[in-house]
Write a structure and sequence with these properties.
Length: 221
Amino acid sequence: MNRLFHVPLSPFCRKVRLSLAEKRIEVELVEERYWEKDADFLRRNPAAKVPVLKMDGKMMAESSAICEYLEEKYPEPSLMPRDPDGRYEVRRLVAWFDDKFHNEVTSKLLYERVNKKVMGTGYPDSANVKAGAKAIKYHLDYMHWLLDHRRWLAGDVMTLADFAAAAHLSSLDYISDVDWNRSEVVKDWYATIKSRPAFRAILADQIPGFPPPAHYADLDF
Ligand SMILES: N[C@@H](CCC(=O)N[C@@H](CS)C(=O)NCC(=O)O)C(=O)O
């Protein structure tokens, strides 16, 4: 059986969960409290990060490497365009969300508000929360601009870029940190992606001590 070592609100883990579910690859989810640096976990991934996917007798780390592996091994349904320009744009946007958005927004809001409490490492730093709340506006505006020109974030078809973005936004939506009223096109994009069967397990996540808001799992918000 395939196994994904993960934490439920990790955007990197969610991106892999979405890819697996879209491709209908069954996987057993195993929660990994990576901050406890358990010896077995360090053996699975010396980088001490989640996600880690155990598949085909291998332990795999790094969410984008995993998603591209899945894409090459299970090409249908496709989450990458075939042409080099299209593939470039998907990779650029995956990096945008997993690097820039993660550093400017996810780490400033989710990690401050949730991770610190779960890991017992103190209280949210209000300057970070303020910076994250400011930065997400710019990112939503950038997504609005992209989606004004394109059906999906990287072009005409849904790709890993949409899953990367939806993974971050869904984790932030779990703690009500996304102002969906800022852009109707971004809200419509999220409503469409959220309605996919691949999203169901993510919408069912429950973190002890952090109940999600009612709209989180509501397909019509
Ligand atoms: N580049 C990695 C990032 C993974 C990552 O940073 N995961 C976080 C959880 S959201 C983690 O395990 N952090 C532990 C650490 O940085 O020590 C990927 O895409 O898989």
